[in-house]
Amino acid sequence: MERPSLEFNLPDTHEEGKLYVVDSLNNLNKLNVCPAESQRSLDEEENTGGTGENVAGSNTRNQYLFFGTFILTLIISLALVSFVIFLIFQTRNEVDQISSRLLSEKKNIEELKKLNNIILRHLNQSRIKE
């Protein structure tokens, strides 16, 4: 039984040259056959490595990415603004509660002052009687 060879046969530089010439002739033929507007797409295809990806698809993808980012930013901004408005209302409610407590305490202090004055008068009158 023969063993398969582990060596790879690499193409000659002569064959590589032939492929380069054929590729160049194909490009030249495309230039002669295609109109001037198509030249731009051929050049772009060459620049992208021949993957077939054109600028229109790239622009569309960039536009989708831009609008997606824009919508996401708007949603996050809306959430932050809503949270700030919620905090403002909460703070306002707390301030209202504190101010109502202060008013009630002020009334209590005034009542205590009146009671203190009444007690002092009563004590002064009782001393005078003695």
TrEMBL record:
It comes from the Eukaryota. Keywords: Membrane, Transmembrane, Transmembrane helix. Pfam families: DUF4577. The keyword Nucleotide-binding does not apply. The chain crosses the membrane at residues 64-89. Residues 37-58 are annotated as: Disordered. The keyword Transmembrane helix applies. PANTHER family: LEUCINE-RICH SINGLE-PASS MEMBRANE PROTEIN 1. This is LSME1 protein. It comes from Polioptila caerulea (Blue-grey gnatcatcher). The gene is Lsmem1.
